Amino acid sequence: MSDAIVIIPTYNEIENVESIIRAVFSQHKAFDVLIVDDNSPDQTAIRVKELQDEFKNQLFLLERKEKSGLGTAYIAGFEWVLDKNYQFVFEMDADFSHNPDDLKRLYEACANHGADISVGSRYVKGITVVNWPMSRILLSYGASRYVRFITRMKVKDSTAGFVCYKRKVLEAINLKKVKFVGYAFQIEMKFKAHKKGFKIVEIPVIFKDRTKGNSKMSGSIITEAIFGVISLKLKSLFAK
Ligand SMILES: Nc1nc2c(ncn2[C@@H]2O[C@H](COP(=O)(O)OP(=O)(O)OP(=O)(O)O)[C@@H](O)[C@H]2O)c(=O)[nH]1
Ligand SMILES: [Mg+2]
């Protein structure tokens, strides 16, 4: 068993799932993989099960009955992982927006350089996003400025979904109380870790738009984030 596991939530990622799994297992450092699939109609989970023969005791699958959002998929994944002995827990998308070759740098930051959370960040070296339409870049970058303004947290890419957590961070956060499902979930996790005094380090990465499969981005995800950030900040003030 590796000391590190990469959680990859999937919904209709049949075009990506096998290659992303292979890309993780081809890394020099050994990472286990947990796919959290929400009963994808395109049978993503069946492909994962076929691959489990080849990657015994390295590739795991958590199946949920229906599409219930990225945030709750990660919470289910975290709970599964915390039951085992993993010390480093990653979040990564299935669609190659996050480059599996960067896992090593995120790992190093937490394992050897004092980070409690390392974030694959698009906004530490200018704006390192490839192939996104300008509107999407502005939305994401604008969100990051907005979050910094409201929360006063120093993290530049607070909506980033490419993250390595030390086990103790996930143990310290009350996962049952995490309530957001979209981008706000990513902000909420970082904000809660920040409030508990954990050290968050940003590692510059190049983020690429997906080339295969469909986006699950929606208006409700954006609305949740806009109001969610204010609600997080207010709650933290009253919690003092
Ligand atoms: N299990 C599960 N996975 C999801 C859900 N929504 C999104 N995902 C997965 O979460 C990851 C990120 O979702 P994306 O659709 O790529 O979202 P995005 O990166 O904001 O949008 P695009 O890159 O434009 O498609 C992908 O691996 C998706 O398959 C969900 O409700 N349940
Ligand atoms: Mg994506």
Topology:
Layout: E1 4-10, H1 17-25, E2 32-37, H2 44-54, E3 59-63, H3 70-82, E4 88-91, H4 103-112, E5 117-121, E6 129-130, H5 134-151, E7 163-166, H6 167-172, H7 183-195, E8 200-204, E9 207-208, H8 219-238
Parallel strand pairs: 1-2, 1-4, 2-3, 5-8, 6-9
Antiparallel strand pairs: 4-7, 5-7
Helix pairs in contact: 5-8, 7-8
Residues 93, 95, 97, 210 line the site of magnesium ion (MG).
Give a written overview of the molecule.
The structure is a single chain. By secondary structure, the protein is of the alpha/beta class. It has a single domain, classed as Spore Coat Polysaccharide Biosynthesis Protein SpsA, Chain A (Alpha-Beta Complex). It is built from eight helices and nine strands. The chain has a seven-stranded mixed β-sheet, with helices on both faces. Helix 1 links the parallel strand 1 (4-10) and strand 2. The model has no long low-confidence stretch (mean pLDDT 94). Magnesium ion binds next to loops.
